[in-house]
Amino acid sequence: MPDRADPPTVRARTSFLSLPATPQAVRRGRDHVRDTLRFWRIAPGAEPASAAALVASELLANAVRHAGGRLTLCLDLDGDRLIIEVHDTSPELPRDQEIPPDVCAEGGRGLVLVAAYSHTHGVERTATGKRCWAVLTLPPDAVPEAHRTTGPPDAVRWVAEPAGAALVEAVYAEVRPARATG
Predict the structure, then answer these.
(1) pLDDT tens digit string along 90-112?
(2) SS3 sequence, 60-125?
């Protein structure tokens, strides 16, 4: 089977890239994140773009190593939050890693890095496998005015899964006090 990526789909605030689970998928995914953020005018080359590329790389590397099959990288800009998802065809959920990771181990640091750079992250089974996701909170000056929104993230997107419902509730809790004082 040839190693080919389907052409990416980039909309105003959502981007999808389908890839085979090969080692090249990590580099292609990282490049796609950088290109998409540049297209969205999210501070290219700055900390948010580097953090997003790192998080996507770690999620993709785990999917390549443990899931195989076809992968889909999804990016969604929801106000000041960048949601990064990697969908794969394996129903196996990642195991909790030793914290802190063994410094001599070859792997085991990926999800620790994802946790360090993200506001929240998780994994959920889907009808066709699973989705691993991370939400990065971008600094206000990194998001162009055209992409900014007020209020909580798109609840319709997240309430379908228990972890997503928890995220929406956490964000509503952050927004409620700000609105009460503003």
Answers:
(1) 988 876 555 555 555 555 566 77
(2) HHHHHHHCCCEEEEEEEEECCEEEEEEEECCCCCCCCCCCCCCCCCCCCCHHHHHHHHCCEEEEEE
Could you tell me the pTM of the whole model?
Answer: 0.72
Strands 81-88 and 70-78: antiparallel
Total residues found in the chain within this entry: 182
Query: Which one-letter amino acid corresponds to residue 152?
Result: P
Spatial distance between the Cα atoms of 61 and 44, rounded to a whole number of angstroms? 23
More confident residue, 64 or 4: 64
β-strand partners of 70:
20
Q: Is 162 left (phi over 0), alpha (psi -120 to 50) or beta?
A: alpha
pLDDT tens digits for range 35-53: 999 888 886 556 778 899 9
